Amino acid sequence: MDKRHPEARPSPTRRGAAKRSAVTKANYEALAEFRYALRKFQAFSEEAAARSGITPQQHQALLSIKGAPEKDWLSISQIAERLLVRHHTAVGLVDRLVSLGLVVRKTDPADGRRIQVHITKEGEETLAALSVNHLEELKGIRPTLRKLLEQFEREHGS
What we know:
By secondary structure, the chain is mostly helical. Helices cover about 65% and strands about 10% of the residues. It has a single domain, classed as Arc Repressor Mutant, subunit A (Orthogonal Bundle), CATH 1.10.10.10.
């Protein structure tokens, strides 16, 4: 921010004042409850991955690969994008998944410069077991999420 011209960029206080006045106590409660539900699910997911012998990030990578639209693999760059990590971090993550026997690298037949990352049978089994547990956990928090989304729709429309 330019100290000589403070009006050049409004402060967060001034910039959000009009919007903030429209936020109700019920909105704060709903947001807090939503964040709490997300944190509980995240904690469950991290613990489930650890019990399966992998890290949460490895689980996320396997899920991203298996859930890739219209194909059964992802490139390193796509894994980095899906996990919101840098390319070199995704390379290390894939290296560890390869060493665990959960994925394999294959050269892309359409572009020899690109590597495809495919899930192995062992990776499929690990992911399937985790996914069954995650779907059950989501069923448990569905009523809370539904209630919060319905409240948001009532107060803010579509």
